[in-house]
Each structure stands twice: as structure tokens, then as C-alpha cells.
Design brief:
65% of the residues lie in helices and 0% in strands. The protein contains two helices and no strands. Helix 1 runs antiparallel to helix 2. The longest helix is centred in the last third of the chain and has 27 residues. The radius of gyration is 19 Å and the shape is rod-shaped.
Length: 82
């Protein structure tokens, strides 16, 4: 049973994936808030506010980096296990 991964153990890259998901959802909320006045025919936010929408892409990149780090650690572990 020792070779089984524990459910509460943190693998390399897990924190990056979690942080990326949080940043992505913050960007999604910012996108909804920024675009909502355009549909409600209200005064739109200043154009620099649309930069907050870039958090979605940044979060996606952070989560992707965490995924790649997790894959690399798994490969290293598989090589060491041979």
C-alpha cells in the first residue's frame, strides 16, 4: 500500500494549477463585470479595465505551467522506479 498516492499529498505543480484556476476565475468574473454594461446599455468602464480580462489568459498559462511541472515530475519518478 505504500506505493499508492495519498489523496492529501501535494504533487509538484499542484499549487501552480490551483493558483492558475483561481486567477482564471478572477479573470472570468472581471470579464463579466466589464462586459455587462455594454449589454445593459450603461456607461462602459474605461478601456484600461478591459486589461483585467487578461487574467483569464494568465491563469490559463499558470495552470498549464503547473500541469507541465506535474508531468515532468511524474516522468522523473517513473524513470527512477525502473
Amino acid at each position: 500500500m505504500r506505493d499508492k498516492t495519498q489523496t492529501n499529498s501535494a504533487e509538484p505543480g499542484d499549487r501552480l494549477i490551483r493558483a492558475g484556476v483561481i486567477v482564471f476565475f478572477l479573470g472570468a468574473v472581471a470579464t463579466l463585470v466589464t462586459v455587462a454594461p455594454l449589454f445593459l446599455h450603461a456607461k462602459p468602464f474605461p478601456s484600461y479595465m478591459f486589461g483585467l480580462c487578461m487574467l483569464m489568459g494568465i491563469g490559463f498559462l499558470i495552470a498549464g505551467a503547473g500541469l507541465l511541472r506535474s508531468i515532468a515530475a511524474g516522468r522523473r519518478q517513473a524513470r527512477a522506479g525502473r
